[in-house]
Amino acid sequence: MAAPDLIPDSEGAGRFLPWVVAVMVFFAALAGAAALALHQATGTWRNDLANTITVEISPLDSPSGGDGRNDDSAGARAARESERLAAVTAVLRATAGIIGVRPLETAEIASLLQPWLGDSGPAGLIGDLPLPRLIDVQLSATERVDLSALAKRLAGIGPGIRIDDHQIWLGKLVRLSQSLQWMMAACLAMICFATCAVVIFGTRAAFAAHLEVVELLHVMGARDGYIARLFQWRAMTMGLKGGLIGLAVTAAALFALSRLAADLEGPLFGDLALSPFALLVLATLPFLAAALTALTARRTVLRELSRLP
Q: What angle (nearest 5°) sits at the alpha carbon of residue 127, between those of residues 155 and 87?
């Protein structure tokens, strides 16, 4: 037997509930997508930079003089830089706790600068710059390396040799990312609270508008759970409808943002595309919204029924 239609879709304030839920799901999906993207980027940064340091060897100062002396000095300077690179590499490989040492080629250093200086090539702007030599160092995950003592040994080789410890700025970046994720979680909590408040007010209005029918059913012996299910089913239907609308708008917005953010993907941001798991989580939002509206409507109706004589 079909349940009586106590709350038609086109009647009263209830007809606005799907649109309210759609807006809430849209903002919740954006906040959730931002939190998931930050979590994904943080994991990428940790995987790429965990237990690694970079040793930077600054180029030697260019001498002054005539063209011939400059050419001869350039060759001597290149030889001295090669000797410094070999000495630094030897010290690093002899240090306990270092399991990998790889000097970067000039082409690799130029590719790291390309996102900021453009595709000028070795013969362009990048080729004219006095680029430092970089050494990628892999640290052991179990044996600690005394970076202060290592820096002193490297300083004994010559000036302009320094250690770039990624963990210092990576820790700050991770803490910032985690703070932003907590802010997104707080936004989600506030959205859920606002959604519940809207459903409560809408359900109370519908309950008051159909109070005569509810009292009649109550007098005829209808249980509170049966009456609550009538409101619950209607709220769930409208919540699911609004959630699907909000998810569709969110999908269009995220697609547009992904196209705009394609140019930002690089060494710092990495791949900004959401993972399949993140997309699956976002796809569940309409069903969570429907469950939230249904549960809120049911509890509201049961509370109102408990006040009836």
A: 25
| CA pair distance 213, 232, nearest whole angstrom | 16
Q: Clarify whether residues 181 and 299 are in a common domain.
A: yes
**pTM, 2 dp:** 0.67
- Looking from the CA of 41 toward its CB, the CA atoms found within 13 Å total 24
What would the two tokens of residue 8 be? 């038609």
> In terms of C-beta density within 10 A (0-12 exposed, 13-18 middle, 19 or more buried), how is residue 126 classed?
buried
Residue 39 shares a structural domain with residue 181: yes
Question: Tokens representing 59?
Answer: 């180029």
Q: Are residues 182 and 155 in the same domain?
A: no
One domain for residues 100 and 41: no
C-beta separation of 92 from 101 below 8 A: yes
pLDDT tens-place string over residues 244-274: 999 999 999 888 887 776 665 555 555 556 7
